[in-house]
């Protein structure tokens, strides 16, 4: 495990305003992380556009995202 990334009391905000989320993305782009495990899609990103944007960006960097509640692993999807 690399770290725990959690943004407190940021419901409904964009990803760029979530400091720990942006730190997570940066660490992934730097090659420090190869897998993200999160409880659900709603905990990962606050809206559909951010979810798609960052899942695509992470996949391009060979970083998988596992959404536990939805049983989704982005590296095994086509």
From TrEMBL:
It comes from the Bacteria. It holds the Pfam family Resolvase. Gene3D superfamilies: Resolvase, N-terminal catalytic domain. This is Resolvase/invertase-type recombinase catalytic domain-containing protein. Residues 1-78 form the Resolvase/invertase-type recombinase catalytic domain. InterPro entries: Resolv_N (IPR006119), Resolvase-like_N_sf (IPR036162), SSR_resolvase (IPR050639). One of its GO terms (molecular function) is DNA binding. PROSITE patterns: RECOMBINASES_3. Keywords: DNA recombination, DNA-binding.
């Amino acid at each position: 495990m690399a770290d725990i990334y959690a943004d407190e009391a940021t419901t409904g905000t964009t990803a760029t305003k979530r400091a720990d989320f942006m730190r997570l993305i940066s660490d992934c782009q730097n090659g420090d992380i190869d897998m993200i495990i999160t409880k659900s899609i709603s905990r990962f990103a606050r809206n559909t556009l951010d979810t798609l944007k960052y899942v695509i960006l992470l996949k391009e960097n060979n970083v998988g995202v596992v959404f536990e509640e939805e049983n989704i692993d982005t590296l095994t999807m086509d």
